[in-house]
Amino acid sequence: MYYLPRLKEIRLLRNMKQKDVCELLNMKQSQYSRYESGEDEMKIGTFIEICEALNVSADYLLGLSDKEKKLKD
Q1: I want to staple 20 with a disulfide (CB 3.0 to 4.6 A). Which of 10, 16, 51, 68 is the partner?
Q2: Biggest distance spanned by C-alpha atoms of the chain
Q3: DSSP state of 57
């Protein structure tokens, strides 16, 4: 899963803990941790919600672009 390294990287760049992301998504931290570590695959809807919570394009997380692009300023 190509998005995994960038998922953690962008979260840390946003100075967010897993707990912070989980609060935005109304998700248990244990579930988010499994996504970030690659133990579980996430549904596309969850992936989109994470992109929105981290304010980053899906292209960047998926490795389709090396330029980080925010969804909104």
Answers
A1: 16
A2: 32
A3: -
Please list, in sequence order, all residues whose beta carbon lies within 8 angstroms of the beta carbon of residue 37, skipping any fewer than 6 positions away. Answer: 4
What are the φ/ψ torsions at residue 34 (nearest 5 degrees)? -70, -35
For residue 64, which amino acid is it? L
63 sits in the region (left: phi over 0; alpha: psi -120 to 50; else beta) called left
pLDDT digits (tens, 9 = 90+) for 6-49: 999 999 999 999 999 999 999 999 999 999 998 999 999 999 99
Residues 6+ apart with CB under 8 A from 63: 2, 3, 6
